[in-house]
Amino acid sequence: MTTVIRRALAPLHQPRTYTRWAYLILGGAAFVPYLMATLVILFLLIYQGGPIGPTAPATEPTTTDTIGLTASLLTALTLIAATALVPGTRAFVAHTTATLLGGPLQDHPPSSEGGRARTAGWLVVHLTLGFTVCLLTMVTLSEAALLILAPLTGWGAADPDRQGLIAPLMTDEAIPRWGPLVGTAETLTLLYLVAGLGAALARLAPRLLGPSPAERLAAAQARADSLAERNRLARELHDSIGHALSVVALQAGAAERVIDADPAFARTALAAIADTARTATAELDHVLGLLREDRAPAAPPRTLADLDALVDATRAAGARVDARLTGDPARVPGVVSRETYRVCQEALTNALRHAHGAPVTLTVRVDTEHLSVHAANPLPAAPRRRTRGGRGLAGMGERVHLLGGTLDAGPHDGHWRLAAHITWKGHRACPQSPSSTTRP
């Protein structure tokens, strides 16, 4: 019983009841300029400059008056709905509603035809309901105050023309006796009515001011695309920076060993370290710019057209690379070309890291709608201890599988072999710089 009473009295002491009441009154106040403007214009047109207002003779309402008032209301509602076309209206209304009305309002989507139509519907509902609540508030609170004070003021006694909602229904004797009770009940009824209307608006707001199901689906897809792009960028960092660090480590070790015996080779190795570091820094800036959602650097991502430079850098790190590229890489779609370059980069990085000094063969064959990548190097005599968990092979597999291709990698006949096959249809080839066949 206590719980029931507490729930019944909750609207009377909850702050949101009064903030929603204020929201409805603001809607009623906003309704007045629309109504007054249309009333003045239409009545001037109907009466054609005749006497209206306080100086007009008092007459009974005519059909013309009724038509004029109805036309004014309809015109006012049309103008209210047209307000949704004003830029920024949806954002302002959504922010105000979320602040005063409450409810699970999500971020409002960009304006669209459907969004503007729903905003127009909300404005009509809010302002019309708010105007009604304004009238009820003025009449009800005024009458309730007079009824509550009736035993002290004698209001309503012997007054057959008294105005209000309840007082005209009461007898002269009942007003002083029951006026305070009736006035209190009238005030409580208004409060519960406002609480109910506010709750109804709070439930309606997400449908009219929030995103539609299609917009929510598009937002979810955008979030999924963003996560997928960040995962792709993580693979980019792993492949490009991992390759660069492997080259730098190997070059630094070689320079340290021969710095006294072969200074010229040491200088060449140090120059290769500097060049590799600059390249890695540029790629890191590119990826970080994308993660910050800033404008990405102008440098384009590397493709098969850059395979020669990749092979030269790997050879400079001390690897013996026999690389061949057959076919025209310009016919390869841009996304396939980029991902294939990363597969080649990861294959050469693994050879440097796990079989340094061993000969490496890399063959890339481009056909009309298919390409293949084959890489092989002898397995080291003694397996090297893994110093960290790698994502290189898994990253290569993800790249190839996302393009609908296949990847096989593993030991075979004393060699580590990698074979990737990618077939494309419907992809648009992106222009690439001219590329020559990479020679051993």
Index terms:
440 residues, alpha+beta, Heat Shock Protein 90, 12 helices, 5 strands, disordered C terminus, HATPase_C_sf, phosphorelay sensor kinase activity, histidine kinase, ATP binding, two-component regulatory system
Helices, strands, pairings?
Elements: H1 2-13, H2 15-47, H3 63-82, H4 89-100, H5 113-148, H6 150-153, H7 174-209, H8 213-258, H9 263-291, H10 307-316, E1 320-326, H11 334-354, E2 359-366, E3 370-378, H12 392-402, E4 406-412, E5 415-423
Provide structural commentary.
This protein is an alpha+beta fold and 440 residues long. The protein folds into two domains: 2-211, no CATH class; 220-423, 2-Layer Sandwich (Heat Shock Protein 90), CATH 3.30.565. The protein is built from twelve helices and five strands. It has helices spanning 2-13, 15-47, 63-82, 89-100, 113-148, 150-153, 174-209, 213-258, 263-291, 307-316, 334-354, 392-402; strands spanning 320-326, 359-366, 370-378, 406-412, 415-423. The chain has a five-stranded mixed β-sheet with strand order 1-2-3-5-4, with helices on one face. α11 links the parallel β1 and β2 (359-366). The longest helix has 46 residues, at 213-258. Residues 51-56, 294-298 and 428-440 have low confidence and may be disordered.
